[in-house]
Design brief:
This protein is α/β, with parallel strands linked by helices and 404 residues long. Helix content is 40%, strand content 17%. The chain has 2 domains: 4-27 and 295-403, Aspartate Aminotransferase, domain 1, CATH 3.90.1150; 39-292, Type I PLP-dependent aspartate aminotransferase-like (Major domain) (Aspartate Aminotransferase, domain 2), CATH 3.40.640. Bound molecules: 4'-deoxy-4'-aminopyridoxal-5'-phosphate. 4'-deoxy-4'-aminopyridoxal-5'-phosphate binds at residues 92-94, 121, 123-124, 169, 173, 198, 200-201, 221, 362.
């Protein structure tokens, strides 16, 4: 059982007023709030050990390097990667995906196929499109059904010996649908394809086990899991990371540089050119510790209660339609009300201190599928409450009355 009031007191922003009302923050899918322990760790880094890493012999540089590498080890343990050097620090999911698509530019050829799904965030569509344009490979798309679930038989039918990469998100940001990634990974491997999982929306809710999943790449962002912005992780299997060329050239990623030839550093440094977000990388480890202390079993159980309550209460509203009605869902609800633009609802409830996301959620193909301009998305975290959901429902009803 979680002590929600105690948890809420860990997050200073939650006691703020917005537009004169107590903040109700339901935009966790966009970014999560940060506990004081994470904020303190960032300050402590700059106050006590700020130095560049991996290069200085001096004490501060070594302290900063140790803290950074300890954090890499925490991530390794958290996602159960076999080796610490399979864990690359990135600036976020987008960076991780682009690192992989850049690498595949030297592998794919005309006639090869890349499979993405209709449920993807633009971050996991556009880089693959750019890769296909560059290489002559073809992009294939797994369709969805009316419940917002992937049509698995259609995925099976798309697979062939031409399939070189399959990529799907673990959890959809726009609808909250949890995808059957284990099945997808196994099937893709059976035809020899590599698999990248976009875990951006999964890591706030669950602890991925990359060895059990057997995915080749797993990308996520730190800022959605109580960590700082500008942080992220790309997990890649050692064999793949050795095979892919570096993404960016620069300092830190080399063994030796001459004008005739440069040789690259070993993993993970080959993919970590330049000075990284050192403070952010270290503090991501603090955020992971915090979440593990709360406990992912507790988080899931509680968020499921929030999801069930919100679904039931929102459906009391006449003319309200929920998108993404599949069974397997994280605590995200996307909805619209008949005849009202989502933006208008979002703006009115913002005046009441309630933060939701409105729009296409960087997933325009999903909006096109449902023939809508966008939705209102309420995404819940373990620090939200049933009372907050009830207040949102009342606010949405009020907005509906004002706008009808
Ligand atoms: N994929 C998904 C499913 C997401 O929800 C997001 C963020 N909204 C991203 C990718 C991109 O993450 P970032 O902007 O942190 O790189």
């Amino acid at each position: 059982m979680l002590d929600i009031q105690k948890i809420r007191s860990d997050f200073p922003i939650l006691s703020q007023k917005v537009n004169g009302k107590p903040l109700i923050y339901f935009d966790n899918g966009a970014t999560s709030q940060k506990p004081q322990i994470v904020i303190d760790a960032e300050v402590k880094y700059y106050q006590e050990i700020n130095a560049n890493i991996h290069r200085g012999v001096h004490t501060l540089s070594q302290l900063a390097t140790d803290a950074y590498e300890i954090s890499r080890g925490k991530v390794q343990e958290h996602i159960n990667a076999k080796f610490a050097h399979e864990v690359l620090f990135t600036s976020g999911t987008t960076h991780g995906i682009n690192l992989v698509t850049n690498g595949f530019a030297s592998i794919l050829k005309t006639g090869d196929e890349v499979i993405v799904s209709s449920l993807e965030h633009h971050s996991n569509i556009v880089p693959w499109q750019m890769l296909c344009e560059k290489t002559g490979a073809t992009l294939k798309v797994i369709p969805i059904n009316e419940n917002g679930e992937l049509i698995i038989e259609a995925f099976d039918a798309l697979l062939s010996e031409r399939t070189k990469v399959v990529t799907v998100n673990h959890i959809s940001n726009a609808l909250g649908i949890i995808n059957p990634i284990k099945y997808i990974i196994d099937k893709a491997h059976a035809v020899g394809a590599a698999v990248l999982i976009d875990g951006a929306q999964a890591v706030p809710h669950l602890k991925p086990d990359v060895q059990d999943l057997d995915c080749d790449f797993y990308a996520f962002s730190g800022h959605k899991m109580c960590g700082p912005t500008g942080t992220g992780i790309l997990y890649g299997k050692e064999a793949w990371l050795n095979k892919l060329p570096p993404y960016q050239g620069g300092g830190e990623m080399i063994k030796e540089v001459t004008f005739e030839k440069t040789t690259y550093a070993d993993l993970p440094h080959k993919f970590e050119a330049g000075t990284p977000n050192i403070a952010g990388g270290i503090v991501l480890g603090t955020a992971i510790d915090y979440l593990n202390n709360v406990g992912f079993d507790n988080i899931q159980q509680y968020e499921n209660e929030l999801l069930a309550h919100a679904t039931k209460r929102l459906l009391e509203i006449e003319g309200l339609k929920i998108y993404g009605t599949g069974k397997n869902k994280a605590s995200v609800i996307s909805f619209n009300i008949d005849g009202i633009h989502p933006y208008d609802i979002g703006s009115i409830i913002d005046k009441l201190g309630i933060a939701v996301r409105t729009g296409h959620h960087c997933a325009q193909p999903i909006m096109n599928f449902f023939c809508i301009p966008g939705t209102i998305r309420a995404s819940f975290s373990f620090y939200n409450t049933i009372e907050e959901i009830d207040q949102m429902v009342e606010a949405v009803k009020k907005a509906q009355t004002m706008l009808s």
